[in-house]
User: Fold this.
Amino acid sequence: MAQKIHLRQAQIGPMANFVYLVGDPETRTAAVVDPAWDVAAILELAQNDGYAIDKILITHYHPDHLGGSLMGHNIQGASELVGKIGVKVYVNKEEAEGVRKVSGLSESDLVKVEAGDTFKIGGLDVKFLHTPGHTPGSQCFLVEGNLISGDTLFVNSCGRVDLPGSDPEAMYHSLNHTLRNLDDSTVVFPGHAYSSEPYTTIGNQKRHNMYMRFPTLDDFLDAMGYSR
Assistant:
């Protein structure tokens, strides 16, 4: 049986970030997810795998996923990649302003998407899931039973909700409604290597991730140190 999807997970940079290459084995075209830290290494990875990058997908606007200035250091990222290969950057519409400010990308570089939108990587269908909480426009990408979850859902954890633009109530709904409603067999690929396991499943997280097991929003907020 022919391979349906090429999904490469690569840990790049000093903050244990995962960068993903998602490709169609028939057309040999791919999207790169959260290309930060080392653009040359990302391009080399795609070349070695035999794929041409024609889209950039951004889960959220933080510099370790997007590129930009962080603690006085300039991180390579989407802007440099656009400069080299001239592709569009797909962001949630709620994240577009933050992406521009952090990365220096122009309005014309961006494709703004909404929850439920779909697009093609070659012949593959990819669905955008809006999962606010870590940032207002955080999004995940669902393709062929795989979920690239950024900093919304980690293996047995979730993204921080104490940063500017974070919203613990939105995070609860993203985890316990949007993502919990996915099929248990969905394979989850997180934005950071914060666990010895590089990926998990929605079913596993429903059983073992405490942030997906609180019966009510108030219980979740109490555990996070917030109250309504």
Remarks:
- The two ends are 52 Å apart (CA to CA).
